Amino acid sequence: MKTEICISLASDNNYADYALVTIFSSAINLDSSYRLKVYILDGGIKSDKKQMMLKILERFDMDVVFLDMTSETLFDDLPILMHWSKAMYYRVLLFKMLGDDISKVIYLDCDLMVTESLHKLYNYNLTNLSAAVIADSDQASNNRLNLPLDNIYFNSGVMLINLSYWRNEYNIDYIRSFINDYDGYLESPDQDLLNILLANKVKYLDAKWNMQVGMYRSRVFWKKLYTAKGIFHFTTNVKPWAVDDPHPQAKYYRFLAKNIGIELQEQIGLISGVKKIKRFIFHYLPFWVYSKLKGFNF
């Protein structure tokens, strides 16, 4: 009997195709002794799109559950910050939305690609910890949020969440108090909120489980990011489904997307091509190389 791994993603209709690529990449790389149970936090995915997703994923031994978030009342009296919608709360309240029989879940953003079996992430021991996370490539937010000096600001795009711990330690009123206390300070509301709530209550994992674009500038990570297996997180505004994304893994991402029938732009114009080269120099070369080229107007 296969061991079940629970994962969760949040998507509306616009991001459903990209959520599908994330799920597909997770499935094709999963060790054969495991199976996935996927909880999609559905922010308005159309019925025909859901059927398309289920049709493509039926080749795998997995269960896919769509949780309708558009009618979820848990969010009704929670404040909305700036231009962010109530979707910002989806991952924060997973401990309420998933059944008590589920002790932990891997949360994944939709703008990433999995190239390693997720059982290696899922099996980390989280005793007395709220989550396992990966450090963010930009640590400036640690000072902005006045977090403890020994704290490391993490990226919330990949999280192994200990739901049992959350159910014992947190409730909606407790979360609301944090939101109100930090009203006006949360620039990335969901990620900032999670860093405040979970300060010094998380386990930090190897960067391979959330390889962010900002890491390519580091001499320490550069070679590893080109060869490692894990989770690639496309954290710039230009995503791999755009033909002008210069990310080193964008070509493979587009291969997977087209393999499951997702239509992507194929031709790139001259101006877009030049921008692609500039983006590569800016984001994907080690800093010591970029610094020699900084005379370019990026």
From TrEMBL:
Matching InterPro entries: Glyco_trans_8 (IPR002495), Glycosyltrans_8_dom-fam (IPR050748), Nucleotide-diphossugar_trans (IPR029044)
Bilayer-spanning residue ranges: none
Entry-linked Gene3D superfamilies: Spore Coat Polysaccharide Biosynthesis Protein SpsA, Chain A (3.90.550.10)
Metal-binding found in the keyword field: yes
Keywords for the protein's UniProt record, in alphabetical order: Glycosyltransferase, Metal-binding, Transferase
CDD domains: GT8_A4GalT_like
GO MF entry, a single one: metal ion binding
Signal peptide (from-to): none
Keyword Magnesium in record: no
Top-level division of the source organism's lineage: Bacteria
SUPFAM superfamilies (alphabetical): Nucleotide-diphospho-sugar transferases
Name by which UniProt lists this protein: Glycosyl transferase family protein
Organism: Vibrio parahaemolyticus
Lineage: Bacteria, Pseudomonadati, Pseudomonadota, Gammaproteobacteria, Vibrionales
